[in-house]
Amino acid sequence: MDIVLSGIRSTGQLHLGNYFGSLRNFVKMQHDARCFFFIADYHSLTTHPDPKMLHGNVKNVLTEYLAAGLDPEVATIYVQSDVPQIAELSLLLSMHAYVGELERTASFKEKIRKHPDNINAGLLNYPVLMAADILIHRATRVPVGKDQEQHLEMTRRFARRFNQMYGVEYFPESMPYNFGQELVKIPGLDGSGKMGKSEGNGLFLVDSDEVIRKKVMRAVTDAGPTEPNTPMSEPIANLFTILKAVSSPDTVQYFTDKYNACEIRYGDLKKQLAEDIIKVVAPIREKIDAIKADDKYLHEVVGDGGRRARESASRTLADVREIMGIKPF
Ligand code: TYM
After folding, report:
1. Ligand 1 pocket mutation, candidates 4, 13, 22, 78, criterion most atoms within 8 A of CB
2. Which atom of ligand 1 is nearest to the CA of 43?
3. Which neighbouring-strand residues pair with 79?
4. What is the 3-state secondary structure (H, E, C) of 160-179?
5. Which CATH superfamily is domain 3-183+295-324 in?
6. Where in the chain is the domain with CATH 1.10.240.10?
7. Residue 149 in contact with residue 174, Cβ under 8 Å?
8. Which residues, 6+ apart, have CB-to-CB distance to 6 below 8 Å?
């Protein structure tokens, strides 16, 4: 049976990129496999969040997981720091991760560029901790967005290296997963790049209908096509990428034809896009407040999820210790 695992960092509210890249897929898969979904609070520490905010962010992500339809009856939902075995496995795997390969990771290089004042060892070790998250339950499928592809490649490399080094077939090949399709990259509304939590270009699951309409109407566009079949500029291609995620194929075809015939009115495209985003977001948003107010329920969900995750994690860690020669007297 497939073991599915995924996680989201607890750095704030979830946006449409998190939803289409990952969360929606975990929700769809939860009834067909053994599933582990967690909140990556250790990973969020690399950016030094205010300790007063950290717990609130964990609660936001947990609430949004449940509001989006994750079912704690079938899936194991837990907080990363409630499973200390992950930290130990990360330490053990780090002995076989080379500094050169960690320094070459795209996400590390990007962090150096963006935050030269905070290049901590946690950032360098980020892919090792992520491999530990995945391998602690020996997951075979990992529903993630396109930006996590390289981290998954590294997870497989560390797993293979471990198997070869100790002459075992212990860790599986953990594959990124999107139902046989290309991994998703949801762009931002600012004309370039991907939608992110802190880029100021996001549409969030907590956004009201009015906020969604305003943000979409303000999205960057261009002066419009002047000849039939003009290739799309990046801001327009980005709007179509979001349209493909939220709208019906007929709607996408309609606006594509209008664009190709130079008859498109970007205002009409944006109005339709905003309404179709609202159809995705509103039903999730409407559940958030009630779930968030129910501390007892949230406590039970992660209490039970943490227990199940620790059971599975302890089994793997006992095997790994044994394989590496760490034995009790
Ligand atoms: P994070 O918290 O940045 O994002 C969580 C998930 O959302 C996806 N995502 C996107 N997908 C498409 N378009 C976007 N614009 C977009 N933005 C974010 C990400 O691909 C991810 O799937 N390192 C991970 C968290 C993590 C993890 C793991 C994931 C830690 N351990 C183990 C899977 C398995 C991260 O930073 O995701």
Report:
1. 22
2. 30
3. 39
4. HHHHHHHCCCCCCCCEECCC
5. HUPs (3.40.50.620)
6. 209-289
7. no
8. 22, 25, 26, 36, 37, 38, 142, 143, 144
Helix (H, G, I), strand (E, B) or coil at 8: strand
Instruction: Based on the residue annotation, tell me whether 270 is a catalytic residue of this protein.
Output: no
Cβ–ligand 1 distance for 149 under 6 Å, the answer no
Condensed to tens digits (0 to 9), the pLDDT of residues 298-308 reads: 999 999 999 99
Active site (annotated) includes residue 258: no
Q: Where are the CATH 3.40.50.620 domain residues in the chain?
A: 3-183+295-324
One-letter amino acid for residue 218 of the chain: R
Residue 278, both tokens: 């609202």
Question: pTM of the predicted model, to two decimals?
Answer: 0.97
Please tell me which residue in 111, 215, 270, 292 is annotated as part of the active site: 111
CATH number for domain 209-289, candidates 1.10.240.10, 1.10.10.60, 3.90.550.10, 1.10.10.10: 1.10.240.10
Which is catalytic among the residues 109, 114, 197, 270? 197
- Classify burial at 228, counting beta carbons within 10 Å of its beta carbon; exposed 0-12, middle 13-18, buried 19 or more: exposed
CA-nearest residue, atom 22 of ligand 1: 144
Active-site residue 28, yes or no? no
Whole-number Å distance, alpha carbon 8 to ligand 1 midpoint, is 5
* pLDDT tens string 208-249: 999 999 999 999 999 999 999 899 999 999 999 999 999 999
Given a contact cutoff of 8 angstroms between Cβ atoms, the answer to whether 273 and 216 are in contact is yes
